[in-house]
């Protein structure tokens, strides 16, 4: 479904000097610099896969999404969707087969109810009235927003607006769905609803989903495979479990006790009053009385901690 071969993209930025003299100088001698956003990335995505793109701010995730959706052209390399479609040509037959939801961009008109925007999209995508009515009823029911169809967008909660943004992206039944930060700032109940819906949609229709998020819960709940982008380069491609196993520096023991530990033993970190983490490589035996332990489990590191470590590494030289 998606084939990316040695794709690269660089932005050109300009430096502005302060003051009148600086502005006068910039008028004739603008100082420009080139920033490499995507560096020689190759990636293959099969039909029905759910791929999570992970990376820090500025790592190149959103730029890669823009290359795949045709918002930006590649400087070098190739990007192909559906075997032979070049995204940047933006052919109607191509645009009909993809859906894009960018968290910073809204399709909804602020003072109008969501239904008005959806009817407009129906006309844009040439959807029949019967298909539109049936599919819209299904989407709003599954995402629990049917009563809000006629409520002005400005009166909706953030979670309800995000769900309608998702419905706008899905209204024409795309084959590939691009989601950039789909659950940003929404409550856990709405997140769980969106997770369940997307997993069921992927299972029932084999829709390919490309997901970027800073919320690792999104990735752990949805992604069958992850690609980690750091400073514009792909540094990992595999499962979430494989990522943790590959980069975890030490196994961790999670301990739940029947009460707080006082004083706190060495090499033990308190998560909450009765939940603790122990570095399993630092101790030969548990520094906790077994009579007070309710549960012990082992895991090989934490996804958030691993990503923090990876993204703190220095950028490669230009």
UniProtKB/TrEMBL annotation:
UniProt keyword list: ATP-binding, Nucleotide-binding, Transport
Highest taxon, organism lineage: Bacteria
UniProt keyword annotation of Transport present: yes
Pfam families, A to Z: ABC_tran
Entry keyword annotation includes Phosphoprotein: no
Stored InterPro entries: AAA+_ATPase, ABC_transporter-like_ATP-bd, ABC_transporter_ATP-binding, P-loop_NTPase
PANTHER family reported for this sequence: ABC TRANSPORTER ATP-BINDING PROTEIN, ABC TRANSPORTER ATP-BINDING PROTEIN NATA
Annotated family: Belongs to the ABC transporter superfamily.
Protein name (Swiss-Prot/TrEMBL): ABC transporter domain-containing protein
Species for this entry: Levilactobacillus koreensis
């Amino acid at each position: 479904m998606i084939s990316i071969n040695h794709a690269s993209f660089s932005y050109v930025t300009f430096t502005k000097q302060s003051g009148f003299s600086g502005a006068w100088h910039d008028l004739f001698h603008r100082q420009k610099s080139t920033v490499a956003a995507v560096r020689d990335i190759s990636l293959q995505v099969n039909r029905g896969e759910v791929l999570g793109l992970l990376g820090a701010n500025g790592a190149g995730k959103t730029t890669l999404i823009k290359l795949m959706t045709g918002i930006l052209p590649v400087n070098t390399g190739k990007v192909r969707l559906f075997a032979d479609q070049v995204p940047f040509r933006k052919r109607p037959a191509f645009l009909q087969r993809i859906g894009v939801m960018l968290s910073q961009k809204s399709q909804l008109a602020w003072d109008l109810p969501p239904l008005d925007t959806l009817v407009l999209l129906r006309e844009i995508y040439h959807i029949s009235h019967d298909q539109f009515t049936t599919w819209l009823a299904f989407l709003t029911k599954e995402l629990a927003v049917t009563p809000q169809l006629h409520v002005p967008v400005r009166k909706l909660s953030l979670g309800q607006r995000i769900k309608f943004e998702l419905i706008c992206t899905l209204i024409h039944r795309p084959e590939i769905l691009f989601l950039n930060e789909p659950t940003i700032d929404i409550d856990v109940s709405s997140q769980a609803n969106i997770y369940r819906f997307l997993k069921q949609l992927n299972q029932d229709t084999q829709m390919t989903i490309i997901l970027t998020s800073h919320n690792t819960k999104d990735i752990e709940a949805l992604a069958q495979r992850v690609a980690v982008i750091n400073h514009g380069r792909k540094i990992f491609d595999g499962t979430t479990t494989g990522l943790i196993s590959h980069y975890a520096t030490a196994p961790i023991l999670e301990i739940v006790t029947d009460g707080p530990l006082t004083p706190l033993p060495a090499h033990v970190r308190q998560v909450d009053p009765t939940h603790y983490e122990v570095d399993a490589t630092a101790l030969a035996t548990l520094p906790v009385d077994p009579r007070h332990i309710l549960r012990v489990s082992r895991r090989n590191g934490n996804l958030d901690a691993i990503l923090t470590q990876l993204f703190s590494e220095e950028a490669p030289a230009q």
